[in-house]
Specification:
alpha/beta; two-stranded antiparallel sheet
Amino acid sequence: MKESNRIEILGIPVDPVTQEEALGRFRRLMEAPECSLIVTPNSEIVLNASKDPELKALITSASLIIPDGIGLVYASRIIGKPLRERVTGVDFLTAILKELESRGRSIYLLGSKPASEERPSVAQLAGEAMKKAYPDLKIAGTRDGYFKRDDEEAIVRQINESGADFLCVALGSPKQEQFIARNASALVTVRGAMGVGGSLDVWAGTVRRAPEFYQKYGLEWLFRFIQEPSRYKRMAQLPLFILKVLTTARDGR
């Protein structure tokens, strides 16, 4: 169920939706008979996909591609096709949780770090926090993201047995999207699946989300850099992305 009005940034399609429009699309996807892929690309993912045909094809195949990342907003203005707003993955996930709760539907959380002697798995902690925020939300099950490719069949079976309606996969991009694409046809009860990156860590409280000031001005990347200076190589992707967009726009490509 893809839309035809997608814009392309460095050849990678993005749906120019507001969060409310994305939520409306989500509702329709949840009524479809198959498992639909939702992706949340930021500038780093788009830059990588512009150089990786397989990743580009995977993103293009998604039923909903939300513009997660201030870099995409800047890029859309440069190419003359401005996005109306940025839809962050963590905010969209929150909207999805509210929707699932109101409709009596369930969610399965897959990914992130396993349990340790000090604490449960991140997925379990996130599920507990979601349940506290939305008491009527059904958590179908949780599992950490430390598994091998050979384990996937058993994991899919567990998800099916849980009866989950929606699946969150936190394995980092592109592994999380690849997992969904590989197993979509085998997910019997799941109607929508989304790669959520670090959103489970935010819900679990193991990673602090940027304060509202940083969110308002699209500076989450700066907050993350202040927290984790070791991310400098990933932070460098944003100026490289903008430079490539400027060069491509100038050359008319």
